Amino acid sequence: MQEQLLVNPAGIRTEKLVTSKNTIGALVSEPESIHAGTIVFVPGWSGSREDFVAVMPILTSLGWHCFSIDQHGQPASYGSNKLEDFTLDSFAQDLIDIANSFSEPIHVIGHSFGGLVTQYAASKSPQSFASITLLCSGTGPLPKENWGGLPALVKAVEAGRSLAFIWFIKTLTLTILRKQSFSKPVRKWRKQRWLNTNPLSLQVMSELLMKVENVTEKLKQTLARHKLPVLVLRGENDDAWPRKEQLEMAQTLNATFIEIIGAGHSPARELPDKTAIELDTFLKTI
After folding, report:
1. Please, what is the angle between helix 184-195 and helix 163-176, to 10°?
2. Residue 142 and residue 159: Cα distance in Å, rounded?
3. DSSP strand pairing (12-18 vs 23-29)
4. What are the helix (H) ranges across 66-112?
5. Which of 51, 53, 54, 177 is an S-S bond match for 272, by CB 3.0 to 4.6 Å?
6. φ, ψ for residue 197, nearest 5 deg
């Protein structure tokens, strides 16, 4: 299993993308000759654009122009200090605006919470996308037994607790439970990413993970009128949304369903070679 890369590979550059309301930070890798199409990666809760730096160069070598964004409130897109600026609709509108800025429909890979945003965006503007991939995501809220510290985090942010304090409690709990699975340098990097995240974004994403509408049903209604290729891709050992729910999601959306053997909740980081092969194979059949 590969750890988070702490230095971006050669060929990856930073870029700013301007939407109707926000400035979105992105990492970009561009093929030298053959252009297979454009891919946009959307990270999940407490994630960032760096979550895809291991898989981007592989896909770019296969002809894909890759963009990995920070959603509004994530470190490279820190954004607003107004709670009302963080909604599922606004996250989705940023993605639609980015998609519409290209001269061709784009392929979107939404990871975890990013998959919920991707489904909602596609239900609003399916013509903006060439395909969507739901990577280790679900139909709606996480099962209550998987909420973990989400309720406490929401209360802490509402009470004005600092992210440094919340990180300390979170880390202490993981240490007690012996669930610290990252090396010391990666833990340091993850802490800095956490501290650079907008707490309002974490609050709203956490609330949505607990009570968001069923976005798959909403997308199903749209797909009845507008065909859009969909891939449901999960790690074999993904422990967020249940496998049964992800399989039913694929059936509901008439989507391709693929499991990456040996991967968990973050296949693009854990097994980037296998993830890139599955994505490239699917996207080149469209």
Report:
1. 150
2. 24
3. antiparallel
4. 88-100
5. 54
6. -90, 145
Q: Is 161 left (phi over 0), alpha (psi -120 to 50) or beta?
A: beta
Cβ atoms of residues 61 and 24 within 8 Å = no
Torsion of CA 203, 112, 271, 198, to 10 degrees: -20
Domains and CATH numbers, the chain: 12-142+213-283 (3.40.50.1820)
For residue 186, which amino acid is it? Answer: V
Query: Which is nearest to 204 in space by CA: 45, 69, 86?
Result: 86
Alpha helices, DSSP H, located in 196-240: 199-211, 215-223
Residue with tokens 């009302």: 84
Q: What is the pLDDT of residues 237-283, one digit of tens each?
A: 999 999 999 999 999 999 999 999 999 999 999 999 999 999 999 99
Strand order in the sheet with 256-260: 12-18, 23-29, 64-69, 37-42, 106-111, 129-135, 230-235, 256-260
**pLDDT, tens digit, 9 for 90 and up, residues 54-67:** 999 999 999 999 99
Amino acid at residue number 7: V
CA 1 vs. chain centroid, Å, equals: 19
Taking the model in full, what pTM does it have?
Answer: 0.96
Per DSSP, the three-state class of 256 is strand
- 177 confidence band (pLDDT: 50, 70, 90): very low
CA within 13 Å, CB half, 30: 6
State the Cα–Cα distance between residues 235 and 10, nearest whole angstrom: 27
Does residue 233 contact residue 136 with C-beta atoms inside 8 Å? yes
